[in-house]
Amino acid sequence: MKTTKYFYERSKFKEFVSNITYHQLLQMSDDDFNKWAKSLRNEVATQWDTTNTPPVIGKDEEGIIKSFKKLSANKCDFLQEDYTDDSESLGIIQNFNKDASACNQFFPTMLKTKISIGKSADGGLSIYDHFALPELEDKFIRVMKRAVKRDSMYSYSRSIVNKKDENPFWDGESAYDFIKKVKDENLLSDKWKDIGIWIARVKDLNLNNYGTTNEAYKGFGNLYMSADEVNELKNNGYLTDTMLSNIDEVVDKEVLKSGKENKFYYLIRWYDKTIPIFPKILQIFRLSCGQPAVNFPALTAKMLYENYTEHITNQDKVTVYDPSSGWGGRILGAMSSNKKIHYVGTDPNTDNIIDELGVSRYQYLADFYNEHCTNDYSDTALNFFEPVEEPNTFEVFSDGSELIGNNPKFQKYKGQLDFVFTSPPYFNREQYSEDESQSFKAYNEYEDWRDNFLRPTLTTAYEYLKHDRYILWNIASIKIGSDTYYDLEGDSRKILEELGCEYKGKLKMLMTRMVGLDPSKSGILNSVKHQNKAYKYEPIFVFYKG
Predict the structure, then answer these.
(1) Quick one: 512 and 396 in the same domain?
(2) What CATH number did the domain enclosing 483 receive?
(3) 256 and 296, same domain (yes or no)
(4) Which of 395, 392, 406, 396 is nearest to 352 (CA)?
(5) Contact 443, 449 (CB under 8 A)
(6) Which of 86, 219, 297, 474 places its Cα 20 to 30 Å from the Cα of 233?
(7) Number of structural domains, the chain?
């Protein structure tokens, strides 16, 4: 009899009717494209609703176990020097390891988290909403046209540049001559028969950015044509409808109401005709259909547990407390640690309760790891010569962190915690569920949230922590629009220092570089230059209870 699994596995998107090639998409009329986008949306939503599988690749059970088994052996040498002049910095954490990514599969509602960008929690949208809500259908179609058909993120095509290694079928011609050669000499045949091309329009062409003097491209730049050249090639039959399907009309310029003139130029994009829409479109969903919730990296948590309890040498096991268990990354980090850890966590999100089993998803994940990725006593009962590895332990509560101190079962940990580390809610930015116990619902004004959620959460953490121990707090201030700023960083520090903690500085946890985002631009909070690249980072503030 097959045992029910409470995690999703590999997505079935390869079987979708909507999984056509990018080449087929370019040939569609607007009506056909709209039908395709609706079909795609329906197939994703249906799979999500019937199997709890969001639009991600995912791993099968064997793949999950294989990845998880790598975690304990990882040395977690992610901490690097910060060579900026930031006196508060304790270093940079550069961890882009994906071995723990399958942790997300144990939390199927993760991409249903609503992300609010306004002053109130009202109006927040999740990735799931973009597929499920009827009123978002037209918006979804527009997004697909821009991000997929016009390929605004360069997922399926890239521009022909004047460097042969980047496009070996190009042989030094101008853009105009290349298009003529494609037809006159049947260039894209035989060896290059799977290469297709289309024309993209750009405005305000700057030769220093797009031309042959482009320093950013180290001496090579995009081939481009004028509107006159494109029209001539079109009128003489060199450019097909497919090649021009992403251009409404070929024009030389437009004059805005302000009187400003935009000059248009035309680039040649090339693509592989055999490439299907999936799985590349999955990244487009994450970047274009709302902001996704992000799990805390399990290996980073493991590193912090081990590094900040290293001075504790008189105990067989350390007890760590996570006031906001989130999406399981930190409990997985604890289970995979080579240091003997007892993880204590709490989270009131009822979506993370498996009703049929009567346990939380945190417990289910931890048990899964201990069963499949450690050698426990039952596994070795028949082999007395094999060393026994006792799994790390845990206890998870379902109280809000501001109320957990009232729970008699939690009170046994008072004065027993060796380390406190979490990533708490950023006020109303992430809405994990519609539970009334969620902090953004219980305290819907920032000052109320700060005083009645943040302060008691930190007070409990401090009072339950032993002396000569650390509190690490991963939080970031949030900016709403141009005039509203919530100082979550400063308020957290103020509260902890009032309680008696000594502020030691901050760690900078680098975030994955996202397409189109320049973290060095003004207005983006918490950015750093590292190894000649600009990154957005999440601060982790370090406090010491002496």
Answers:
(1) yes
(2) 3.40.50.150
(3) no
(4) 396
(5) yes
(6) 219
(7) 2
Cβ(288)–Cβ(143) below 8 Å:
yes
Q: Which two tokens stand for residue 301?
A: 């948590």
Yes or no: say if 127 and 285 are a contact pair by the CB < 8 Å rule.
yes
Query: How much is the pLDDT for 54?
Result: 93
Identify whether residues 344 and 421 lie together within a single domain.
Answer: yes
**pTM of the predicted model, to two decimals?**
0.85
Is residue 505 included in any domain, yes or no?
A: yes
pLDDT in tens, 395-442: 999 999 999 999 999 999 999 999 999 998 876 545 443 434 444 445
Q: Taking the alpha carbons of 104, 109, 110, 112 in that order, is the dihedral positive or negative?
A: positive
Reported as half-sphere exposure (CB side, CA atoms, 13 A), residue 543 has a value of 27
pLDDT value of position 196: 96
Residue 457 included in any domain: yes
342 shares its domain with 397? yes
Residue 213 has pLDDT above 80, yes or no: no
Scanning 105-248, the segments in alpha helix (DSSP H) are: 127-132, 137-144, 175-184, 207-210, 227-235
Pick the closest to residue 53 from 4, 3, 105 (CA basis).
105
- Report angle CA 321, 322, 326 to the nearest 5 degrees: 160
Pairwise CA distance, residues 271 & 22, whole Å: 8
Q: Identify which of 184-188, 212-216, 375-379 has the greatest average pLDDT.
A: 184-188
Contacts of 508 (CB under 8 A, 6+ apart): 82, 89, 91, 92, 93, 526, 528, 537, 538, 539, 540
How far apart are the C-alpha atoms of 496 and 503, rounded to whole Å?
8
Instruction: Collapse the DSSP code of 527 into the 3-class scheme (helix H, G, I; strand E, B; otherwise coil) and give the result.
Output: strand
Question: Which residues, other chains included, contact 321 with Cβ-Cβ below 8 Å and sequence gap of 6+?
Answer: 344, 345, 413, 417, 419, 420, 421, 422, 461, 464, 465
Q: What is the pLDDT of residue 434?
A: 46
Q: Is the pLDDT of residue 381 over 50?
A: no
| Tens digit of each residue's pLDDT (9 = 90 or more) over 53-89 | 999 999 999 999 999 999 999 999 999 999 999 999 9
Residue 306 placed within a domain: yes
| Nearest C-alpha neighbor of 83 from the set 526, 508, 497 | 508
Domain that holds residue 183: 157-274
**Whether the Cβ atoms of residue 235 and residue 241 lie closer than 8 Å to each other:** no
Residue 17's DSSP bridge partners are: none
- Confidence tier at 512 by pLDDT (50, 70, 90): confident
Measured distance CA(61)–CA(105) in Å, rounded: 10
pLDDT at 534 over 60: yes
